[in-house]
Design goal:
The structure holds two protein chains of two kinds. By secondary structure, chain A is an alpha/beta fold. Chain A is 35% helix and 31% strand. Among the domains of chain A are: 87-164, Dna Ligase, domain 1; 240-298, Actin, Chain A, domain 4. Chain A has helices at 50-68, 109-120, 168-180, 191-199, 202-207, 239-250, 254-264, 293-317, 340-348, 369-386, 395-403, and strands spanning 5-11, 15-23, 29-38, 42-43, 46-47, 75-80, 86-95, 105-106, 128-140, 143-146, 153-154, 156-167, 184-190, 209-214, 219-225, 228-235, 277-280, 289-292, 327-331, 352-354, 360-361. Chain A has a six-stranded mixed beta sheet with strand order 13-6-1-2-3-21, with helices on both faces. Chain A has a five-stranded mixed beta sheet with strand order 16-15-14-19-20, sandwiched between helices. In chain A, a hairpin with a 4-residue loop joins strand 14 and strand 15 (219-225). Chain A is globular and about 85 Å long. The two termini of chain A are 29 Å apart. By secondary structure, chain B is an alpha/beta fold. Chain B has three domains: 8-195, Rossmann fold (3-Layer(aba) Sandwich), CATH 3.40.50.1440; 218-308, 2-Layer Sandwich (60s Ribosomal Protein L30, Chain: A); 337-373, no CATH class. Chain B has helices at 14-27, 41-46, 58-61, 70-79, 81-88, 104-119, 136-152, 172-195, 204-213, 230-240, 248-251, 268-278, 363-366; strands at residues 8-13, 33-38, 52-55, 93-99, 122-129, 155-160, 216-226, 255-262, 286-293, 300-308, 315-317, 323-325, 353-354, 357-358. In chain B, the strands form three sheets. In chain B, strands 3-2-1-4-5-6-7-10-8-9 form a ten-stranded mixed beta sheet, sandwiched between helices. Chain B is globular and about 90 Å long. The N and C termini of chain B lie far apart (73 Å). Classes of the chains: A alpha/beta, B alpha/beta. Chain A binds chain B through residues 43-44, 46, 48-49, 126, 235-237, 240-241, 244-245, 247-249, 254, 292, 294-295, 298-299, 302-303, 305-306, 310, and chain B through 144, 343, 345-350, 352, 354, 359-360, 362-365, 367, 369, 371-373.
Chain lengths: 409, 373
């Protein structure tokens, strides 16, 4: 039986991306086609003009169909970035009783199920929507880090759940947009988590790593350690902000600034490299002029350094800054900026690279991979949702199940 | 009614609203326009004498009720947007009667209020709140829905069911009828003062002013009296009205609309007596009085008082999906000028503020980095 063709959609601030792929038995992704369209009517990952955004999504889906010469299935998975996503760790558990209903006893599989059920019930504000509930390790009588407590003697069993939640209105409007295309939204996944799924190897997840998706309107991040996602979040600052900063700092119009950023941008200030003068032709009522590369780099550096610092602060606050031995992996359109990995290395004081998609064919892992990471990961997510049962024991599957053991509730 | 009269539509929403409207409509004076809206076909069948009946959310509940689920109620209303828009077109004032705490009323009312605002109709919601014994879940739902409703409705009149709780062992049907009568008198009274041109006219613009400043909550009281000393009887009756709190609503009201209807035998002294005893004795209260003479009211006098609970600068959209005070004063203070440049770079989307810092402002400006020139 051939694997089902899965379609993932990301409605970003700069581009709408569609990716169609099959997931082979061994977990390798075979990309059948991709579609892309310049995004309209989306700012900071949120829809500001419904009709314009709808048009862009339709074009991207058509593009993907032409590209793969196959029709997109009925169900499409959504990688939702933006939405001011946050994560929250919640612990819940049950006391363990023996057969005489006294405290202390052997932990049975029912006890584990029960504890998971209790922990999954995380209260959430009315305006937030639950995207994922990711299971953490068990605590047995206050001792943490237990992977499988079945059969152990204990009085008290607790388990942590990491809840990733986004703003309800944002996610629901994205779903509504898909309904109007019309396609069915099978599930919405957090874009940052999708990127992490695409680029992380199991070893990196165990060693501790941060995946940062530098999008046009938002920057999403996911922190993993000991094989589990431990922190996730999203900041509504992205490539658009860099462009806007250049506009105001160098008195250029948007188009000029965008072009300048892509062609001559650099996230670090290299004092050794000589000063360059970049001439910009006149356009759209803005006169042509010559700007100095040092000014351009100073503006970009300030913005990107700040964005990284905001993430670093959150990691620090959650006590995870000491465990990032696998370092920082950058994905998304912003990772194409020169010097961005060097800057991340400076800010986080950890190794940093551009993320490469893992176990995937049909797409250039180096050139395109980082840009398509979120949709690729979303297909992975979709595949894992489909093959939840029956459980076959391959290492990749195990990795998946450990990732969102609790996401289906 | 005159040619350019404002169109007033009285709409029953949800089970409670529909049955109330059904009862009001059977005794209403000519010229009142009614409509009922529910997702429950059975409820609507009971309202057969009302011309406009709208079944919403057919595809969602399949003609059953919303089952006490707020979300279902909301979805029902949203799925029937075009029908509701047709219903609201050319309506100037929408009076909605609904019971909060159930499914459709609580869920659909905020949607309806938003649509009314979009359609340019003023909306006034008469909301019946559940009895305390219906449990805290129902109460919570009602409260939640009221909160959402406040954002979009022009005004809300709250009618807690517990206020109509009579003493002793009155029959349930009597109590319900009493509740309906109170509501019905309010709706009809309001309709009457708006649609009849009187000696001292009260018109739509006056109501508009009250609605704009009342901060979305108001109360009403109405009564009528006949016979000897009818003015005093009327005043007493106004004070013991279930919603009047023994006259407390009049004492500190910052604004009120008083409509008096009487026959040709209405005297100036009577009008004076009523006004003097109702209007609070201070200089700040905004009062608008209207007197209408209706020959059919001979020997009878009736009054309808709508009071605001608080008086605030009207809130207007600030262009970013929020509400702000029209004059820019009062309410939450905002940092001026420097931190809030009028940049449209992000399409007027919500500003990204992180721990008090506005991240939409270029970092190099906030950090005061010197750019090489």
């Amino acid at each position: 039986m051939s694997a089902p063709l899965l379609t993932a959609l990301e409605i970003g601030t700069t581009t709408v991306k569609v990716l169609m792929a099959e997931v082979r038995e061994d977990g390798v992704l075979m990309v059948a086609g991709t579609g892309e369209c310049e995004s309209r009517g989306v700012r900071k990952g949120e829809i500001i003009d419904f009709e314009l955004a709808l048009g862009a999504v339709r074009r991207a889906l058509e593009d993907a169909e032409t590209n793969s010469r196959r029709s997109i299935g009925e169900k499409v998975y959504l990688a939702a970035s933006g939405g001011r996503s946050e994560s929250r760790l919640h612990k819940g558990g049950i006391p363990i009783l023996n057969e005489y209903d006294e405290a202390g006893g052997e932990i049975s599989s029912e006890d584990i199920e029960h504890a998971l059920d209790v922990a999954r019930k995380v209260p959430l504000a009315d305006d937030r929507i639950r995207l994922h509930t990711l299971q953490q390790h068990f605590d047995v009588d206050g001792r943490g880090g237990i992977v499988n407590p079945a059969g152990m003697l204990a009085e008290d069993l607790k388990v942590g759940m990491l809840l990733i939640h986004g703003r309800r209105s944002t996610v629901e409007n994205l779903k509504r947009l898909m309904q109007n295309v019309p396609v069915t939204c099978a599930d919405a996944a957090f874009g940052g988590l999708c990127s992490a799924l695409a680029v992380l190897t199991p070893e990196q997840k165990r060693a501790g790593s941060v995946v940062i998706d530098l999008g046009g309107g938002t920057t999403d991040f996911v922190v993993t350690n000991v094989g589990l996602v431990q922190l996730a979040g999203s900041i509504a600052v992205g490539g658009d902000h860099v462009t806007a900063d250049i506009c105001s700092g160098l008195n250029l119009n948007r188009r000029q600034a965008e072009k300048l950023k892509k062609e001559s941008g650099n996230a670090i200030i290299n004092r050794l490299a000589g000063e360059q003068n970049i001439s910009i032709p006149a356009e759209g009522g803005f006169s042509g002029r010559v700007v100095r590369s040092s000014a351009l780099h100073a503006i970009i550096n300030a913005r990107m350094e700040e964005t990284f610092q905001l993430i670093a602060e959150q990691i620090e606050e959650n006590g995870l800054s000491g465990v990032l031995s696998a370092g920082i992996l950058l994905t998304g359109g912003g990772s194409a900026m020169e010097g961005v990995a060097d800057l991340a290395r400076q800010v986080f004081n950890a190794p940093a690279h551009i993320g490469r998609v893992q176990e995937c064919t049909g797409i250039s892992t180096k050139g395109e991979g980082a840009r398509f990471a979120a949709v690729l990961g979303c297909v992975r997510y979709a595949a894992s949702q489909l093959q939840d049962e029956p459980k076959t024991r391959s290492t990749l599957r195990e990795w998946f199940s450990s990732l969102w053991g609790g996401s289906r509730g | 009614m005159a040619e350019n009269a404002k169109r007033i539509l009285i709409l029953g929403l949800g089970g409670a609203g529909c049955s109330t409207i059904a009862r009001i409509a059977s005794t209403a004076p000519d010229g009142m326009e009614f409509a009922v809206m529910d997702c429950d076909v059975q409820t609507l069948e009971r309202c057969a004498h009302i011309e406009t009946r709208l079944v919403i959310g057919k595809g969602i509940t399949d003609g059953l009720s919303a089952g006490g689920d707020l979300e279902t109620g909301r979805r029902c209303a949203e799925s029937s947007v075009s029908q509701i828009e047709t219903l609201l077109s050319a309506v100037d004032l929408l009076l909605v009667v609904t019971g909060l705490g159930g499914g459709l009323g609580s869920g659909a009312a905020p949607v309806l209020a938003r649509m009314a605002r979009n359609a340019g109709a003023h909306s006034l919601f008469f909301t019946v709140l559940p009895f305390p014994f219906e449990g805290s879940v129902v109460q919570g739902k009602a409260h939640n829905s009221l909160h959402r409703l406040r954002t979009h409705a022009d005004a809300i009149v709250q009618m807690p069911n517990k206020r109509i709780q009579p003493d002793g062992d009155a029959l349930l049907t009597d109590s319900m009828e009493r509740s309906d009568r109170t509501l019905s008198a309010g709706v009809v009274g309001l309709w009457r003062i708006l649609s009849h041109t009187g000696l001292c006219n009260l018109d739509f613009a006056d109501l508009h002013t009250l609605l704009r400043y009342c901060d979305a909550t108001c109360r009403f009281s109405c009564a009528s009296a006949t016979g000897e000393g009818r003015a005093q009887t009327l005043i007493d009756a106004l004070r013991v009205h279930p919603l009047a709190d023994n006259g407390a609503i009049f004492e500190n009201a910052p604004g009120m609309l008083v409509g008096i209807t009487g026959g040709e035998d209405l005297t100036l002294a009577e009008a004076q007596q009523i006004m003097e005893s109702i209007v609070p004795d201070n200089e700040t209260c905004w009062v608008k009085m209207g007197i209408a003479i209706d020959p059919s009211f001979s020997g009878r006098i009736s009054a309808m008082v709508l009071t605001a609970e608080s008086w605030k600068e009207p809130l207007v959209g600030d262009g970013r999906g929020g509400l702000k005070s029209a004059s820019g004063e009062g309410g939450q203070g905002e940092l001026p000028g420097v931190l809030k440049p009028r940049s449209r770079a992000f399409g007027g989307s919500e500003r990204t503020v992180w721990r008090g810092e506005d991240l939409d402002v270029p970092t190099y400006l906030r950090r005061k980095t010197k750019l090489p020139r």
